[in-house]
Every structure is written in structure tokens, then in C-alpha cells.
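On clarity, I found the account of how folds are encoded harder to follow than it need be. For illustration, here is how one protein appears when written out as sequence plus C-alpha cells.
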Amino acid sequence: MLSPFDWLRRCRNSAELLGTLRSLQAAPELFGPEGRLGPPHSALAGLCRRCWVYPSSSPRYCPACQMILERAYSLAELARESILIWGYVNQLPRQLRPGPALQDDGVLATYIYDERRFLVMLNQRSLKPWLQELTFYHALNLKGLLQIFPTGAPGSTTGDLLVRVVHQESRFPQDRLRVRFYAHPRQIFQPIRYERQGVLTFEVPTFLNMLEMAAVFRTILMPEERKILYKLLHTANSAEAQFYWGRFLGTLSQEARDMLNAWRIRQWPRPQVTLLYQLTEYVDFYQSG
């Protein structure tokens, strides 16, 4: 019989995952252990064409899969710009405990695996406020690892990514709260390479500071200016880069020039620059005060 986590592992994309999470909450009886197994697969057997475990009630799917697919169809647009957080911590965060709900803007769905593990699906622009709320309520008493990853890419399903992330959950001691941020699914399958570059695992305050910098960066520089800057910072010819750097600074506002000079962004390693650009997809425009 399939457990709730087995249903999550079967999801092919973010829409199916969101549909599964919401179906588990809305109709848990469809996913219970008492379900009747389907017959052995054959040309005449009415086996569900999605889970291949339960008998189909419609022409193709069992009731659980039918609900998931219907919800996935209606949630596809909402799920497109989402991000997942798999937590392995010493205690469940307050946001997930039973009781009065805290601010949950941007939280699309949640799943509690056990007393130490959970899954949260967020709108990707809600990552920073969600982490800020987490640190506000827990400060130093929450320890473990939060793995943040995208919902899928060509060549891998969302279920595949989830299983791989769970496999890596115990790589660090639970002496503090760390964040592992996978900007692209390939980083989940090749974590050592990106760990060596220093762009994968961070302590929470450091990661929040990086998100804050990304918000400022996105606010002060226009999209076309960010594109030009990226090319300059990745130019192999240092003399050519130096020549165009002065001309580029001359086209920017004083605020933008002060920001780039204060950050000394030209001395950053290239993986760090790439990470800054990736993080701009997960933040809103900066709002002071």
C-alpha cells in the first residue's frame, strides 16, 4: 500500500506535487492504507494508469490519482513559480504546529512527515519572509538542515528531486540551523562540486543577508544593466573588462555605482556572482523601513 510520502514520490512536476499535497489535506480517506489493491497488470485488468497500484474507477485512473490530476490541472499556473523546502530539524517550526496560524502568505501547501521532517511548498518570492519569520520565532533553538530546491527540470521529475534531497538530509550535525540552496536541479545530483565553490550551504543569517543583497541588487539595477554587468564580470580578458568597466559605470546612477563599489563585486568569485543573479528570482524589490 502507498503511504502519503509514496504519493509525493510519484509526482512528475510541481503541479502534480501541489495537487497531491492539497488532496492529502482535503480527502485523506482516499490515500489511507485500507485501499484495495488492483489486479495484476494485464491487457484486461482495470489498473490505474498513473500509480499502477490501485484499481481504476474511471476509464484510466483510481479515485486518488483522478483527484490529483484534476487539481494539478487547475493549479498548474500557481505551481509554476514555486519552490520546495525539505526540513530535517530537531523540532517542528511553529508555522507547522497545530494551533493559531501565523502569517502564511505565499505558503502553497505543507506536509509533515514526522516530528522532525517536513515539506513546505512556497511561492518562490515568499522565501525571504518565510525564513525571516522562522528565525524570528525560533532564533537559536531550531537546529538542523533546510534544503531549498526548485520543483523540476527537463530530465528529472519532482519526485526524483525530493528523494535525492531526503537522501542528503543527514550530511551535517544538528549543532545549528543551516540552509542548502539548490538553484538548479543539477546541483542536487552534484553537490560536492558546488560545496567546494562555497555556493551551496550557509548558516541562516548569512543566507538571509544574501537574499537582502539580491533584493537591493534587483531594485537598483535595471534588467538590461544587470545583463551587461553579468557579461563584464564573466569576461576572460581582464584588460577588455577594465576598459568597458569604466564606460559601464558612467551609464549608471550614483546609487548603483556606490553599491557596486561598496560590494567590490569585481573581486567576487564567478560562482558567487552567479548565485547573486540566481537569488534575484526569489526576492521582491527592496523596501526600506
